[in-house]
Amino acid sequence: GAYAEPERLDEVAHRKGFASANPLVSVVMGSDSDLPVMKAAAEVLTRFEVPFELSIVSAHRTAMRMEEFAHSAAGRGVRVIIAGAGGAAHLPGMIASATSLPVVGVPVKASVLDGVDSLYSIVQMPRGIPCATVGVNNSTNAALLAIRILATYQPKLQRALDAYSHNLEDEVLAKVAKLEE
Ligand code: RP5
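Above: the input record for the complex with 5-O-phosphono-beta-D-ribofuranose. Below: its predicted structure, written as tokens.
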């Protein structure tokens, strides 16, 4: 991958402030090649001052690490998991099968099939094992959904989300006003 060697991603995350000692959200991805897409989630979480961690966990290449990660996440205080993967994107669903934490899957567009393969791999979970799915490459919405979950018990985040929505609204209305000038 272009961004960082997989084994060094944690280090990169720390250096960029993309990691916290007591994360509430865990952002994982199948490969460092997913990082250009997944870093938008890190940026949103940073902006909302939500403690999070960022790492690589591959369902296929590091199956045991994935099991360990999923089984230990709740015990470490993590409240929501965001998992991004492309192609045969089994990571979010397999993590969801090994934890009762809410899991948000991000279908990452790989080099072929336009991300439809990733989307289908994540969205059609069997009954009993839910995995929320956002749009292809939309890790921003995955982070916002995670924050909405945390906001159910953190009023401060609720207020921050309200302010975020108002800003979006103001931006659109400013464009409308410009068009109508
Ligand atoms: C998936 O395969 C990863 O999530 C990534 O999107 C895709 C390609 O991975 P690399 O071959 O670039 O490592 O497991």
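Notes for the reader.
The pocket of 5-O-phosphono-beta-D-ribofuranose is lined by residues 1, 29-31, 33-34, 58, 85-87, 108, 110 (CB under 6 Å).
The helical segments are 9-15, 35-47, 63-73, 91-97, 116-123, 139-151, 155-179.
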